[in-house]
Design goal:
There is one protein chain. By secondary structure, this protein is an alpha/beta fold. It folds into 2 domains: 204 residues, Alpha-beta prism (UDP-n-acetylglucosamine1-carboxyvinyl-transferase, Chain), CATH 3.65.10.10; 217 residues, UDP-n-acetylglucosamine1-carboxyvinyl-transferase, Chain (Alpha-beta prism), CATH 3.65.10. The protein is 30% helix and 26% strand. A hairpin with a 2-residue loop joins strand 8 and strand 9. Helix 8 runs parallel beside helix 12. The chain is globular and about 65 Å long. The chain binds uridine-diphosphate-N-acetylglucosamine. Uridine-diphosphate-N-acetylglucosamine (UD1) binds next to helix 1, helix 5 and helix 6.
């Protein structure tokens, strides 16, 4: 298994291009199942999760083609993927394929809506709490689906098609909102989604569905209305920039010092996180090309954060922000409200000499003057990024093991950091 070796202590200076958002690309690719025409997606990041989803879609009968290199392409430019679900040949998403990535469960909605039945294995993914799918199932039931759970599979049926209804989520769920949007787009009649997720990735999916012919109003607010249509067509859509990658590199700079342009970043997608980074003492400036983050000496100030659904501080940046706070000049409190058990990085950060106490859903971080490089283990996707941030500021060498988690969500991470002066290299596993 590959490892990443980082020698800390180098400031970061230069330009980091921001990739397309993994969390938007996945539901957009899944939306290709809703139509028998071609869906073309631009700016798709090259990630292990995307490749795995292509395998899953292929199993349902989706043909896909990825454009090759074009003249003048930047090496980190996103890919263009053409997806063609002319015939869905298999309505089952088997355990072997779905168990590795939670988002793959979302195929249940378009397959059910288009074919009247779907059988999808209960999902796997990052080990961050129980992460049930009860609300996704509830949404499909509200649209008239009959659901059975048998031998680890969700079997959903709507032989006469789905019909519009009211879905009132008791809790904000991104996956639930994606599922409801896709299913309602092909249901008969009107659907009202209450307490919908307002995340930018939901808006991106809705924008693409609208291009495909869906009738959706209110995406980006907590009430979304969908008027079902009998057929969706093809479309071309560019994936929005990754706000989690943006925030992660911004925190790398805030931690290591230096001056970096995050090219193509959209500050409106992560305003809250950028505000917290600025409070920590880095300068954050919006430029026509993206977001420029700099820290030239000076202490890192302690900042308290609480994770919340959008537009609050994202749970997917919680681990990274905690890494930054390990070197703050004082104590900070980080509260996680979205996922239980999303503090597995705490014990790995302790290996660098970080001082963190846990009190239920709050981590109390007492900043230290120096972190020391150490061998560490990536436990989940975002936690892995926090180890990289700590390593950039630690004295000496850090070896991050199990980097496949990073490859699931960060495209060209070593190249992007090394391009700004970090000492970082990937060591291929022996044999
Ligand atoms: C998505 C993101 C993930 C991010 C999360 C929250 C993708 C591929 N993943 O995950 O990176 O951390 O949003 O912003 O986009 N819940 C239930 N029952 C359900 C569904 C969810 O109780 O049926 C709970 C979850 O356990 C969690 C909360 O609702 O506590 C939010 O989860 P949700 O927004 O659904 O996360 P995902 O869509 O899985």
């Amino acid at each position: 298994m590959d490892r990443i070796r980082i020698v800390g202590g180098q400031a970061l200076n230069g330009v980091i291009p921001i990739s397309g958002a993994k969390n938007a690309a996945l539901p957009l690719m899944i939306a290709s199942l809703l139509t028998d025409a071609t869906l073309t997606l631009d700016n798709v990041p090259r990630l292990a999760d995307g490749a795995q989803l292509l395998r899953i879609l292929g199993n349902h009968g989706v043909d896909y083609r990825i454009d090759g290199k074009r003249p003048g392409d930047h090496p980190t430019a996103g890919q263009t993927v053409h997806l063609d679900a002319r015939r869905i040949v298999d309505t089952t998403a088997p355990y072997e394929l779905v168990s590795r990535m939670r988002a793959s469960f979302w195929v249940v909605a378009p397959i059910l809506a288009r074919m009247g039945e779907a059988k999808v294995s209960l999902p796997g993914g990052c080990a961050i709490g129980t992460r049930p799918v009860d609300l996704l199932i509830m949404a499909l039931e509200r649209l008239g689906a009959e659901i059975e759970i048998e031998a680890g599979y969700v079997i959903a049926r709507a032989p006469r098609g789905l019909r519009g209804g009211e879905i009132d989520f008791p809790k904000v769920t991104v996956g639930g909102t994606h599922t409801a949007l896709m299913a309602a787009s092909l249901a008969h009649g009107h659907t009202l989604i209450k307490n919908a997720a307002r995340e930018p990735e939901v808006v991106d999916l809705a924008d693409c569905l609208i291009k495909m012919g869906a009738k959706i109003k209110g995406a980006g607010t907590s009430e979304i209305e969908v008027e079902g249509v009998s057929r969706l067509g093809g479309a071309r859509h560019a994936v929005l920039p990754d706000r989690i990658e943006t925030g992660t590199y911004a925190m790398c700079v805030a931690m290591a010092g230096g001056d970096v342009l995050l090219q193509g970043a959209r500050p409106d997608l992560l305003q809250n996180a950028l505000d917290m980074i600025a409070l920590s003492g880095a300068s954050v400036a919006v430029t026509p090309e993206g977001v420029r983050v700099a820290r030239k000496g000076g202490a890192i100030a302690p900042v308290n954060v609480t994770t919340e659904p959008f537009p609050g501080f994202p749970t997917d940046l919680q681990a990274q922000f905690m890494a930054l706070m390990t070197r703050a000049d004082g104590e900070s409190r980080i509260r996680e409200t979205i996922f239980e058990n999303r503090f597995m990085h705490v014990q790995e950060l302790a290996r660098f000499g970080a001082r963190i106490r846990l009190d239920n859903d709050v981590a109390i971080v007492t900043g230290v003057k120096t972190l020391k490089g150490a061998p560490v283990m990536a436990t989940d996707l975002r936690a892995s990024a926090c180890l990289v941030i700590a390593a950039l500021a630690a004295e000496g060498e850090t070896m991050v093991n199990r980097v496949y988690h990073l490859d699931r969500g960060f495209e060209h991470l070593e190249q992007k950091l090394a391009g700004c002066g970090a000492i970082v290299e990937r060591l291929a596993s022996p044999g």
